[in-house]
């Protein structure tokens, strides 16, 4: 594990050298970082990490994005996720897999009351419609690994929530 300062990411290029596969799940919230901080973390840091990974020899990059990501969206969150998807694809990896999970079901250390309420509701909905509105983070992690172990022929592959559930079962 290498600890890097994302404000000086270029100084840590060596940490990105010699890896065939890169996984990126980096992100924050607007509430925690503010609008500018959210853009810096979720778009700028992620894009710079992808560039460093590619320069270091990475051939397959796996990016966790979000359901509804769209660079043309009027909503900051979805727009930034769409923009970073475009930036990562433009880096030119041999393979790029983008996962677009719905609401992530997980236990957090920090308190996010509205997210907790949503998770309780969506956890109950998931019993009836297991792949519709949410996905456990463990399922996303398994899907990320599976897409590397079973890469397709396409240069860019986008996995929506249902496909993440399916691949995460493997």
UniProtKB/TrEMBL annotation:
GO terms for cellular component: cytoplasm. GO terms for molecular function: catalytic activity. It comes from the Eukaryota. InterPro entries: NAD(P)-bd_dom, NAD(P)-bd_dom_sf. Pfam families: NAD_binding_10 (PF13460). Residues 4-151 form the NAD(P)-binding domain. Monomer. Forms homodimers during oxidative stress. Interacts (via N-terminus) with elongation factor EEF1A1 (via middle-region); the interaction is direct and competes with EEF1A1 binding to guanyl-nucleotide exchange factor EEF1B2, thereby inhibiting GDP for GTP exchange and reactivation of EEF1A1. Interacts with nuclear transport receptors XPO4, IPO5/RANBP5, IPO7, IPO9 and KPNB1 as well as GCN1L1/GCN1 and LRPPRC probably through their HEAT repeats. Binds NCOA5/CIA. This is Protein HTATIP2. It comes from Sylvietta virens.
